Amino acid sequence: MKIIKTFVLLLSFAANLNAQNTVGSIINSSASYEGYTLFCPVNSGKSYLIDNCGRVVNSWTSALLPGLSAELTPDGSIVRNGRVFNSSMSIGGLAGIVEKFIWNDFKVWSYRCSGPDSTSHHDFEVLPNGNVLLMVVYGKNISDAVALGKDTSSFSDPILYTESILEIEPIGIDSGRVVWRWDVWNHLVQDFDSTKPNFGVVADHPERMNINYRGNSINRDWLHANSIDYNPELDQIVLCFRNSSEFWVIDHSTTIAESASNSGGRYGKGGDILYRWGNPAAYNRGTTADQKLFGPHDISWVPAGYPGEGNFMIFNNGDVTGISSVEEFIAPSDSAGFYSNPGTQAYGPAVAYWSHSEPTNTLFNSQRLSSAQRMPNGNTLICSGFAGYFSEVDSLGNLVWAYRNPVTGTGILTQGNPVNSGVNSIFSIKRYGLDYPAFNGRTLTAANPLELNFNLDNCQISTVETNYDDNSSLEIFPNPADNVIYVNNKISNSTYFIYNPQGVLLQSAFLKEIGNQGIDISNILPGMYMIVSSKNPKESAKFIHKH
Questions:
Q1: What does the alpha-carbon distance between residue 540 and residue 547 come to, in Å, rounded to a whole number?
Q2: Neighbours of 78 (CB within 10 A)
């Protein structure tokens, strides 16, 4: 196995930095992967899509602060978490609602997940079928925890949080249906109380979580999940946990009943943990000396077709060491997604395949927030969240792009002025290549950068355009229609919206394939309606006459 470690000193790049630029674009070289970067400032309701020069290509505005992540879908919509005040849920990364806005900043769907004892939080994942995986935390009374062997001798909190995942099928404009769920509460083990049903030797059950492991937390938020990713080829989900400093892989192919058990699904283990890595002390197969991750964020698979495809990548915050790093490593598994049984040892690997850190760079080292993403050209895009600092490095650790978020809770920063870390924090960022389907059929023109008194001396100024065949004629038939209206879908991954004469959105349909596609309109009453494609803003709306 080839092990590559890169350590970058900030001073080695001092000659390349534009001395005037403290925010916005700092470095932009030709070695950077060209695309558009999406981010949501922690203290702003706006989400931004910028080019590599930091110029704004599009933005979306919510009435809510982020909670905390956002994603650009193939049809050009943005899905984001919103922060809903919940006085009964004391958790960092609070969300409570997920919202969807089409390209022209019109909200078409939302789903509220916030109650007296539960809330969605941090991150989500949009599945290929349009459903959304939400991370949801809810409280269990301490009596429920004691019934599963919780040792309360040094734990005085009346509540213990449990982490769960809900898969939501969007319905209408503000509703959804739970079609799948998973809960860590069904996969616990303990060696404290032999009278309880989940008693066992913790080291013999790495597929379960020790309810008495303390990790980084002594309060109710003992796990603190903060990111989620989905692998469509394997039908697996991976979750990152800050307070236990590890991540878990679980099976998504299970039924709801199987996910609560230890059998069933493609991998035969129900909802038990298929693989975990980062901190073997959490399952009594190691000590603190064996710990690899420290308060990590943003676990993900490297996508198929990218350099390192199938590997895991994570931002290792280093909340104990004070030094952050990005780690890429190869899990011991076969091509079908079955992980090697470690026997009585900790799950491997022992070392990362590739690692990048910048020990002396105070902007890079971030003890909370943050993300990392592999690019198709082999570069790695990094968000050091606390300082709102974005960087891109090649496989050797050379810095090829850098940007600093100029948006704060009190306004936009001015170029050249010093920036205090923490006022411009970002949870995570994502970059989308120029060939991403969301940009098909759109003319993208870059506006000015966000920062005041901007300076673009390190960028070539040009109009950013992506031109495709004009799709100005929307073809629908039959019209009038009965229960199904057909659309000649000219651009793949398009969404169509149907409005009543008062402008109220009644339903939407995501059409993945090109060609004649049917849309079920049996649930709307007879009358006149309007259908609009979100894919191409030049495309004309059409009226539907429902029999």
A1: 23
A2: 24
- What is the enclosing helix (H) or strand (E) of 380? strand 380-384
Tokens of 131: 């459903």
List of residues 6+ apart from 407 with CB closer than 8 A: 41, 43, 44, 46, 48, 413, 424, 450
Q: Give the phi and the psi of residue 138 in degrees, each rounded to 5.
A: -145, 160
Do the beta carbons of residue 132 and residue 125 sit within 8 Å? yes
DSSP state, residue 55: B
Backbone angles phi and psi of 259, in degrees to 5: -65, -20
Residue 290's CB is within 10 A of a number of other CB atoms, namely 12
Domains delineated in the chain: 476-546 (2.60.40.1930)
Phi, psi of 137, deg, nearest 5: -110, 140
Contact 327/316 with Cβ under 8 angstroms? yes
Let me know: does 201 contact 191? Beta carbons within 8 Å.
yes
**Mean pLDDT for each consecutive 10-residue tract of the chain (547 residues)?**
43 42 95 97 97 97 98 97 94 97 95 97 97 97 97 92 97 96 98 97 98 88 97 98 97 98 98 98 96 97 97 96 96 97 95 97 97 98 98 97 97 94 96 96 92 87 41 74 89 82 78 88 86 63 76
Q: Could you count the other beta carbons within 10 Å of the beta carbon of residue 195?
A: 6
- N-to-C CA span, the chain: 66
371 bridge partner residues: 383
Strands 209-210 and 188-189, bridge-based pairing: parallel
Contacts 24+ apart (CB under 8 A), 167-170: 167/127, 167/131, 167/132, 167/133, 167/134, 168/98, 168/111, 168/113, 168/131, 168/132, 168/133, 168/134, 169/130, 169/131, 170/100, 170/109, 170/111, 170/130, 170/131, 170/132
Question: Tokens 């349909």 belong to which residue?
Answer: 509
The CA distance from 73 to 77, in Å, is 5
**Which residues lie closer than 8 Å to 74 by C-beta, 6 or more apart?**
436, 437, 438, 492, 493
DSSP 485: E
Quote the distance between the C-alpha of residue 73 and its chain's center: 12
**d(Cα 544, Cα 525) in Å, to the nearest integer?**
12
